[in-house]
Amino acid sequence: MSRLPVSQRRTAGASQFPRASETKPGPRRPGLSGAEKSARPCGRFPPPGTDDARTRVLALWVGIGLVSLGDYHDARAFLCQALDLATASGNIRAVIATELNLGDAYRYAGEAETADVLYRKALNTARSRHPELVDFALQHFGKHLMEQGDLVPARAHLREAWRLRIAKGDTGLIESTQAALDRVELLIGQAATGTAAPAAGDAEATQWSKRWTS
After folding, report:
1. What is the value of pTM for the model shown?
2. Do the Cβ atoms of 79 and 101 come closer than 8 Å?
3. Does residue 5 have a cis bond before it (omega within 30 degrees)?
4. Which one of 1, 17, 31, 58 is separated from 124 by 20 to 30 angstroms, measured CA to CA?
5. pLDDT for 12-69, tens place per residue?
6. If you ran DSSP here, which 8-state letter would residue 47 be given?
7. pLDDT computed for residue 192 by the predictor
8. How far is CA 159 from the centre of its chain?
């Protein structure tokens, strides 16, 4: 088998990829500002032709990733898109999961009231429609209540989540809830002895909470 000389192989390989000067920007969508356009250097989201189900999943995971990066504003935009698509499709399980993630985005951004509404709705729907998700809703809502200083109801929610997870037998989930329970018990003990506890929305408490999301 004949082989190209090295110089020709380099040229052949390079020709597969356009140089920067040869690429052309995609069409600008109406209504996008310059800042929005620069924030989307790879074109539209989702790519043209993507079906709604795939778009929902992509938006969900992009939103979750942005929450982990602390970009709560953009995270909410993607998670709201995912929630709208889940609702439109009648996928109640996806609605519950997305409401919990969207609640986290609002909670970490310091918008506790909106987070509270989302968590309560997700928990109520899980109890009536998808009991396999109740422990997740209890975990998210219990941690939210703990961060807001509602320690007794927080402990009740987390204890219920712990019992459900013991029944499931998932070690990772059990450890996550046990860590949250240990934290709330510590805070209750501090409150009983008059020891100062972190205030609602305290940065240290929020950082701790992010380590145990599930």
Report:
1. 0.71
2. yes
3. no
4. 58
5. 333 333 333 333 333 333 444 444 434 444 445 666 667 899 999 999 999 999 999 9
6. P
7. 85
8. 23
155's tokens: 């402990």
In the chain, the amino acid numbered 142 is G
Listing DSSP states for 106-166 in one string gives: HHHTT-HHHHHHHHHHHHHHHHHH-GGGHHHHHHHHHHHHHHTT-HHHHHHHHHHHHHHHH
Angle at 189 between CA 153 and CA 104, to 5 degrees: 45
Give the closest residue to 123 by CA, choosing from 104, 137, 133: 137
Q: In whole angstroms, what is the distance from residue 55 CA to residue 49 CA?
A: 10
Residue 57 CA to residue 54 CA, distance in Å, equals: 5
Residue 14, both tokens: 């390079």
CB-based contacts of 98, cutoff 8 Å, min separation 6? 60, 79, 82, 83, 86
Q: What is the mean pLDDT of the chain?
A: 80
Which amino acid type is present at position 21?
Answer: S
Q: How far is CA 57 from CA 27, 75, 119, 125, 135, in A?
A: 25, 14, 20, 20, 22
Residue 144 CB coordination number (10 Å)? 23
- pLDDT tens string 58-101: 999 999 999 999 999 999 999 999 999 999 999 999 999 999 99
Q: Which H helix or E strand runs over 100?
A: helix 92-108
Q: How many CA atoms lie within 13 A of 49 on its CB side?
A: 0
